[in-house]
Amino acid sequence: MAGPPFDQRDGRIWFDGDLVPWRDASVHVLTHGLHYASSVFEGERCYGGTIFKLTEHSERLVKSAEILGFEIPYSVAEIDAACIEACEADNIVDGYVRPVAWRGSEMMGVSAQDNTIHLAIACWPWPSYFSPEARMKGIKLKTGPWRRPAPETEPVHAKAAGLYMICTLSKHAVEKEGFDDALMLDWRGRVAESTGANIFFLMADGKLHTPIPDCFLDGITRRTVIGLARARGIEVVERAIMPGEIGAAKEVFLTGTAAEVTPVGLIDELTYTPGEVCRMMMADYEKTVGKTVAEDKAAE
Question: Is residue 297 among the annotated active site residues?
Answer without folding.
Answer: no
